[in-house]
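Example 3.2
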Amino acid sequence: MTLEEKLWKSFNKALGKYQLIDEGDRILVGLSGGKDSLCLLEFLARRSRIHVPHFTVEALHVRMENIHYETDTTFLQSFCDRLGVPLHIITTCFTDHLPSLTSHPSPLKSKPACFLCSWQRRKQLFNLAQELGCTKIALGHHQDDIIHTALMNMTFEGHFATMPVKLRMRKMPITIIRPLCLCHESDIQAFAQQQQYEKQLKQCPYEHDTNRKKSAELFAHIEQLNPEARFSIWHALENAEKLVEY
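Structure, written as tokens:
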């Protein structure tokens, strides 16, 4: 089995196992320009040409003015054009306070830059998804990301939780899905090199100094102790019903 076949099999297994796509879905993909979101978009676009179930795909790239990292939008546009996927590009920024989700904002305590950047990106995703009438938002988190989040929450927050593979929003008719949830990061990295995905022009200046980075290092050490650890942690998350939330 080739690397591409392995990833494609894991991707399709996740779609079926967690019932991530339904007939008539309109899916908006968060396209950061990193290897994971590019792989996700390529696989979803390919899968959309298989007519059971029938669904459509669009992509959103959010440019953040006050965080100095950058993706070549010319490459993203040509990538989406090749796949036949409409691309939306929004430029925004954030202040040092978290905006309110309501129409009556109230000042809140300052939040870390990573939190604010992520919040603003999600806000743009939700806004556009509702404007377009999308039923799903697809994010490019892979199995390693989900496990790292579980370790981070246990180590730094004191509770057992992670990013769900499928999360139905309560306040809007949208479901968040993570179709790469059974794919390993190392496989996606190798596939990105095979496909010659362009790397981001500038990396995020905060990405190497976070609790998530520390949790990734912890997981790498755990896998050295037990190569089967990822499957044990994944089964624990499944048994605790942390991977699907309605």
